[in-house]
Amino acid sequence: TAAGFSLLHPIFAQGFMLGVGSKSMYSTATQDCSNKFAVARQIYGHPFVQPFPDVDRIECLIVVGANPVVSKWSFLQVPNPAKRLKAIASRGRLFFVDPRETESAKVAGEHVFIRPGTDVWFYLAFLHEVIARGGVDRARVAAHTTGFDALEALARDWTPERTAEVTGIAADTLRALVDAYLSADGAALYCSTGVNMGGHGALAFWLQEVINAVTGNLDRRGGTLVGKGIFDFPRFGVRTGTLMRSERSRIGGVETVNDAFAGGLLADEILTPGPGQVKALFVTGGNPLITMAGAGRLRDAFEQLELLVVLDIQPNETAAMADVVLPCTSPLQRPDLPFVFPLWLGMQARPYLQATRAVVPPEAEQRDEATIYTQLARACGAPLFGAWAVQLAAEAAMALASRGEPHPRMPLEALLSLMLRVTGQPGFEKVLEDPHGTLRPDHRGGDFLGARVVTDDGRLHLAPAALVEKARALDDAFREEKRSAKRLRLITKRAVTTHNSWTHNLEDFVAGERGGNHLYVHPDDLERLGLRDGDLADVRTDAGAVRVPVRRLRELMPGTVALPHGWGHQSAAGLGVASQTRGVNANLLAPSGPAHVDPLSGMSKLTALDVEVRPAAGDLDPGDWSGLPVAERTPPS
Predict the structure, then answer these.
(1) Considering only CA atoms, which of 569, 628, 3 is closest in space to residue 285?
(2) Exposed, middle or buried by CB within 10 Å (0-12, 13-18, 19+), for 455?
(3) 168 alpha-carbon distance from chain centroid
(4) 314 and 397: one domain?
């Protein structure tokens, strides 16, 4: 994830991989958001076409599986999310559809419970009602889309009464949501990780996008917008094939998304002998042992690698297993521009351009990733991007910038300035003149459909064959949902003082109760399970088990339990504070491997997991990331 918050880091990492001739890139996006990229490619023509709600003008916003007050907006840069939510609620209607009454729902709007993992049926019933009520903008659909007839046929049998059996959303409640959506002068459905990671993320996001499109809310002020970056990156991507590679994994045959394979397959790719077996791994700006599915299997797999290299700013759990750790500069130690989403795609509530210089110098042997990958490419005898001209130019620039300095460094400001100038923007120095940034043209709406859609025919493809085929198989999944209705279902949870596995090495951020995670349980479920607030509980899935203290939480939907992710730092000896925290690794419970990866998007299932919860069979071992004593641990399946 950290690599994604830097402009140059992923470019040089990709250049290194192309140079060494490897296509084995694995992405953290397949843990939390690659469903959106996979679907966007099929509907809009490129994965980086990502519409977002016009939060400053919208009159009805339905937020599904997202909590912007704690987790920020996803795929949209919005300062002060609480202020924006209050403004939406004051001028119109704001709803949160979630298994937990989140912090965002308490700030503004109305909350509707939904059983975890059933979002796809919520969207199907919503689409059914939109069509039944004549809420489709037929003229717009005819002018700008293909495939509506297949979509209409798909939604026909998914009535609100039928879907209520699994979602827990009463038919009248769903119809009231549709009423609010259709009667507003500008509306949108918006989702994030609660939907993305729930097992049907690709189908759910697809249905959300087509609802916003067929109702006439896509590409209009007050609905959803498609931003304009400093250049038309989706069109550039289609023309050059950037992020458009279609390859299938050696294990499972899962297609790449954004030129990367599914992270949930990495353990199998390492452990399975044969041509193409992964034997050396470079981890750049990530901590897969904490953040990826099947953490136990992944740790076993890393032990079999011939070479593990980690590039990071901190010696985390993954770095503790590495043969080589290369210390990188932090965001405050490098010059910067807004990262890819706001800069290249215009995904900002109010578009702006801003530049910053480094404010803290590097220490000891810290180097920026562009410098590191340039040096690695030279050491491997494999030029960046497979081109010696690029390699030699990078080395010459590096030599000039670091003349008289103890360590080589790339002229990052010059590279960022070049990026700006070739896209018609003022150079880096000019942008720096306004330290608070410069406003770019505001979103107009009405400039995407018929103009910037990059499919072959210039139309939205509402019914891509692969998505329709998988949606037609939802009857079987629906029956399975009904059979498992009484099982406890696990979701994730975040705190405002943490971001995935980050910030846990700061004493103030992990003081007191914040120094670990808890299993949050509704009072009714506590009583049924024979547990009390503060007790230890054992939580099990087919993939693994953890032992964790319990906390009462009335804001949960009964039948739902929540366990924050990002913990389990006990083996990170280099993190003096984090290694002393007591949290367990929630991803020990998440399965990995080809049977557990969505073939449409490469997504792992990290939420909406069926779990068994019982009073703990013994004491807590705070020194292990499972919380279980050695005698009670089982090998990862």
Answers:
(1) 3
(2) middle
(3) 26
(4) yes
Angle at 108 between CA 106 and CA 114, to 5 degrees: 65
What secondary structure letter does DSSP report for 450?
T
HSE toward the beta carbon, residue 218, CA cutoff 13 A: 28
Q: What Cα–Cα distance (Å) separates residue 431 from each residue in 7, 126, 224?
A: 16, 45, 29
Kind and range of the H or E element at 151?
helix 148-155
Cβ–Cβ under 8 Å, residues 504 and 566: yes
In a domain, 479, yes or no: no
Same domain, 58 and 139: yes
Helix, strand or coil, per DSSP, at residue 375: helix
Could you give the CA distance from residue 295 to residue 544 in angstroms, rounded to a whole number? 9
pLDDT attached to residue 248: 96
Read off the pLDDT of residues 255-269 as tens digits, 9 standing for 90 and up.
999 999 999 999 999
Determine, yes or no, domain membership for 201. yes
Report how far residue 425's alpha carbon sits from residue 421's, in angstroms, rounded to the nearest whole number: 5
Cβ(346)–Cβ(423) below 8 Å: no
What's the average model confidence in pLDDT over 489-518? Answer: 90
Contact 355, 416 (CB under 8 A): yes
* Measured CA angle at 112 (ends 175, 490), to 5 deg: 130
Tell me the C-alpha distance between 132 and 52, whole Å: 26
Alpha-carbon gap, residue 607 to 223, rounded angstroms: 29
Structural tokens at position 337: 């521009």
Which pLDDT score is estimated for 1? 65
**Number of domains the chain contains:** 3
pLDDT band at 498 (very low <50, low <70, confident <90, very high): confident
Domain limits for position 222: 34-229+446-472
- Taken as a whole, the chain contains a residue count of 637
User: What residues contact 205, with CB distance under 8 A and at least 6 apart?
Assistant: 35, 36, 39, 191, 195, 196
Is the pTM value of this prediction over 0.70? Answer: yes
Which has the closest alpha carbon to 118: 6, 225, 199, 4?
199
> What is the 8-class DSSP label of residue 260?
B
Distance of CA 312 to the CA centre of its chain: 20
Q: Which residue has the tokens 């470019």?
A: 11
**Longest C-alpha distance within the chain, in Å?**
73
